[in-house]
Design goal:
Strand order of the largest sheet: 1-2-3-4-5
Largest sheet: 5 strands, antiparallel
Helix content: 10-25%
Strand content: 35-45%
Order of helices and strands: HEHEEEE
Length: 108
């Protein structure tokens, strides 16, 4: 097994990359104000394009978001808690400067 393959295998590993749909866009819409506040600006576009997920005590989503700027994709790590947990969806971390062709990777 190649080193790069070993690195991606972990308990509760990431799903294959899939096209984002309404559910992933709704998650992005929930964390958009937080991300815009952290960046100190409003993004003209905020469209979920691709995602990977990870089952934890809830679900962790790694979503590629098109923000229509140079190097215009953000990879966001978003936590969706279990139903009934009385917790909100949260933006855990994000990475700027990605391109449309960059693979979504685990964000520690």
């Amino acid at each position: 097994m190649q080193q790069s393959q070993k690195k991606d295998i972990r308990p509760g590993g990431l799903s294959p990359t899939k096209d984002a749909g309404d559910e992933e866009q709704a998650l992005c819409d929930k964390i958009r104000p937080s991300l815009e506040q952290q960046e100190g600006k409003k993004f003209p576009v905020f469209d979920a394009t691709k995602f990977r997920s990870q089952v934890v005590a809830g679900a962790m989503y790694y979503i590629k978001i098109d923000v229509a700027e140079p190097q215009s994709f953000i990879h966001a790590k978003i936590f969706r808690p279990l139903p009934g947990s009385n917790q909100d969806v949260t933006l855990e971390k994000y990475e700027k400067g990605h391109t449309a062709s960059d693979e979504i990777q685990y964000i520690p």
